[in-house]
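Kindly inspect this chain:
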Amino acid sequence: MKLSEYAKHLLLASNLEDKLLPPSKHWDEEVEFNSIRIEKPNRDPKLQFSDRKIKIPRLEHLNLESNRGLTLHHFANHELMAIELFAWAILAFPDAPKSIRNGWIKTIGEEQIHLKMYINRMNDFGIQFGDLPLNYIFWKQLKQFNSLESFSAVMSLSFEGANLDYSQVYAKVFSYFGDQLTSDIMLYIFEDEVKHVKRGVRAFEKSIPGDKNSWEHYLSLIQFPFTPRRAKGYLYFPETRSLAGLDAKFTKELETYEDEYTGRVNLESVKKFGLGSGLMRKNRLDSQSNSD
């Protein structure tokens, strides 16, 4: 199978099982491959995009198993969108360096594992994937993806970057409520997200102009109303950005960044837990090869 055929399969297949087909280790050679930009993925009726807004349960309500299931459903939706959009990037940017494409392929395989982990665990809590409306916040950014650098800025440095924070927060809260299994799932995913952001940094940093630093370049690649607020969670863990290869300037600028949307985030439930800035980690990162 050609890589382009695999990417089309992930985007055009309607059922979830097909979207979970893992990538091959070997691909047939592409003879002629022009940029293809698919506007919307094909999905079964139960997994269609919805404009209905469903709030994620507050942290203090995660003592209830039903709310844990609803939370994981929210996260699973992000994983499915990520699988589709990294496949989209393979088709949209056929001239991307082989190292970047290989990174996208690895990310797809890891996101598929995450999605299955979330689905299996939410099933334990009585929730089936598709029981709730699925937003399409990642797909709404399609018009921003004018280059692989802008794609990396939005998907890797922003959405996956924010998950460095969210996965830590939820790992701590699940552990607080005695649910170590779900906490461990969040830590497994956190460690993969470090690799994902690192891959995005590699794609992004090669294009930084000589007259700009990394933060300035990042700002030039995202379009309002999308702002750096999307690149961090309820709490900010700067050490995670260093683990992912972001420089100190970028890490500090993101930490201090605020805009008109910042005050909308309710931090009261976060403060109740006194989570602190220390990381829960890491049993896999230290053994990862540099090829990631």
